């Protein structure tokens, strides 16, 4: 998919670049981002919204993969950006991302984070709870600012891949509950706060979703709420944000819908509900993360050791693992992989791909079909663009890999490989523990 293919040498090529050359130039493990595919996904969202005729913002959920180069691409593609911490905000600001197109999320924004965002002139805060509502108003008042907000509501729709459920009351750490009246009370309080301007509401129903029904259900609940709020409180929502969650294909059996179908389901439902209510059509925002970058990422590893337990299992170990991709260990997530340097050879054996961390659970793929792998072969694991680099750690003091963006035969470094000096950069030996100087 994307620009990936097998070239004449039988090597995996991405963005017109031979991955064996990438391994030589940048080393492994290496995250490779197919830039054309990221841009294609971005434009699929934008085009689908344009087709609806509604006003919109597509805010890339940078939590999926927040690095400055990615912010630059998001800007060029006309996207907005969703950030959830001072770190993600700083990354966006350092990349020169237009601050008015940044939305600030999170269920425990600290006063420092709020002040930083206010000083930067952020476009919108997505307010999560009553404490934040009043804190934000007070901090904005101190600076003489009026800030645009959305209120995050918990619509009582929960979606997981194939199943979605509608619950009256939802046990979630996020947002104001719709069913128990908290959402309405929050809007009432927000209207009364002088330094806040309520644009509308936000709802996010889950991640890696393959169906549109959950989104339709959420739109219905939010639409009913819009009617109630306009009738009872006289506020008309200008913006409705439906969050992210659009699924991608990791392995066979994953059946995501085309992006246009997710967007179409949302915009159709909005148009029909708001037209029926004789309401002005709101602006629609979404926040895709995984579906923007997930399938554009590939991680390249070198196979370093192998171990066969006759009659049980063969392990091959790669030079990364749960430190660069914690998803299999955390969520039992599945991935597909091939030998990048022998990409058109037939599969001959079944192996389990182990990482190098000192932890038995550090297995990237269980029962992967491969040609008979040799030490030194390159393993390419697909669909690692989202929540991989973003969730990478230094467990065992393993260094985070480099990230390269490839496009039209060119490979450019987007994140340097961590150095050993990076590993100890923040360490301090307190004076009383230091060796006596001679
Ligand atoms: N908006 C909000 C408010 C969210 O909480 C999330 C994801 C998104 C947007 C983006 O959702 P996406 O389009 O990426 O599904 N670490 C997990 C995923 C956590 C998702 C958290 N929130 C994983 O690796 O699967």
TrEMBL record:
Presence of keyword Cytoplasm: no
EC number: 4.1.1.20
Binding site for pyridoxal 5'-phosphate: 245, 287-290, 387
Pfam families: Orn_Arg_deC_N
Molecular-function GO term, any one: diaminopimelate decarboxylase activity
Signal sequence, start to end: none
Needed co-factor(s): pyridoxal 5'-phosphate
Domain Orn/DAP/Arg decarboxylase 2 N-terminal: from-to ranges: 38-293
Involved pathway(s): Amino-acid biosynthesis; L-lysine biosynthesis via DAP pathway; L-lysine from DL-2,6-diaminopimelate: step 1/1
GO annotation, biological process: lysine biosynthetic process via diaminopimelate
InterPro entries: Ala_racemase/Decarboxylase_C (IPR009006), DAP_deCOOHase_LysA (IPR002986), De-COase2_N (IPR022644), Orn/DAP/Arg_de-COase (IPR000183), PLP-binding_barrel (IPR029066)
Positions of the catalytic residues: 358 (proton donor)
Recorded catalytic activity of this chain's protein: meso-2,6-diaminopimelate + H(+) = L-lysine + CO2
Binding locations of substrate: 290, 327, 331, 359, 387
Chain positions found as N6-(pyridoxal phosphate)lysine: 63
Enzyme's top EC category: lyase
Keyword terms, alphabetized: Amino-acid biosynthesis, Decarboxylase, Lyase, Lysine biosynthesis, Pyridoxal phosphate
Described purpose of this protein according to its UniProt entry: Specifically catalyzes the decarboxylation of meso-diaminopimelate (meso-DAP) to L-lysine.
UniProt record similarity statement: Belongs to the Orn/Lys/Arg decarboxylase class-II family. LysA subfamily.
Subunit structure: Homodimer.
Record protein name field: Diaminopimelate decarboxylase
Organismal lineage: Bacteria, Bacillati, Bacillota, Bacilli, Bacillales
Gene: lysA
């Amino acid at each position: 998919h994307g620009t990936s293919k097998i070239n004449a040498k039988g090597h995996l090529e991405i963005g017109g670049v031979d991955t064996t050359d990438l391994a030589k130039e940048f080393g492994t493990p290496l995250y490779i981002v197919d830039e054309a595919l990221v841009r294609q996904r971005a434009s699929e969202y934008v085009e689908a919204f344009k087709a609806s005729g509604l006003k919109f913002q597509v805010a890339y959920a940078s939590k999926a993969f927040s690095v400055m180069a990615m912010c630059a691409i998001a800007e060029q593609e006309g996207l907005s950006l969703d950030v959830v911490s001072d770190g993600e905000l700083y990354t966006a600001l350092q990349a020169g991302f237009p601050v008015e197109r940044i939305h600030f999320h999170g269920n425990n924004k600290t006063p420092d984070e709020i002040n930083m965002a206010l000083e930067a002139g952020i476009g919108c805060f997505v307010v999560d709870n009553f404490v934040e509502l009043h804190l934000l108003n007070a901090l904005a008042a101190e600076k003489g600012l009026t800030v645009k907000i959305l209120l995050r509501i918990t619509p009582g729709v929960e979606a997981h891949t194939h199943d979605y459920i509608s619950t009256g009351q939802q046990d979630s750490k996020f947002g104001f509950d719709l069913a128990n009246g908290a959402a309405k009370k929050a809007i009432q309080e927000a209207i009364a706060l002088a330094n806040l301007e309520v644009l509308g509401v936000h709802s996010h129903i889950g991640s890696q979703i393959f169906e549109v029904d959950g989104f339709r259900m959420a739109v219905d609940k939010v639409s009913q709420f819009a009617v109630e709020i306009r009738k009872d409180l006289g506020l008309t929502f200008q913006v409705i944000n439906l969050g992210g969650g659009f699924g991608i294909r990791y392995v066979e059996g994953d059946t995501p819908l085309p992006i246009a179908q997710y967007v179409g389901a949302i915009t159709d439902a909005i148009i029909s509900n708001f037209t029926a209510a004789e309401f002005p059509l709101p602006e629609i925002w979404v926040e895709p993360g995984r579906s923007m970058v997930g399938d554009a990422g590939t991680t390249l590893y070198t196979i370093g050791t192998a171990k066969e337990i006759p009659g049980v299992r063969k392990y091959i170990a790669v030079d990364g693992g749960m430190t660069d991709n914690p998803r299999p260990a955390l969520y039992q997530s599945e991935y597909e992989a091939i030998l990048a340097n022998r990409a058109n050879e037939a599969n001959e054996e079944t192996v389990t791909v182990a990482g190098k961390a000192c932890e038995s659970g550090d297995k990237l793929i269980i029962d992967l079909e491969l040609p008979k792998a040799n030490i030194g072969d390159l393993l390419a694991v697909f669909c690692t663009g989202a929540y991989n680099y973003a969730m990478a750690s230094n467990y065992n003091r393993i260094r985070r890999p480099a990230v390269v963006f490839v496009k039209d035969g060119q490979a450019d470094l987007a994140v340097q490989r961590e150095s050993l000096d990076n590993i100890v950069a923040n360490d301090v030996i307190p004076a009383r523990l230091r060796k006596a100087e001679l």
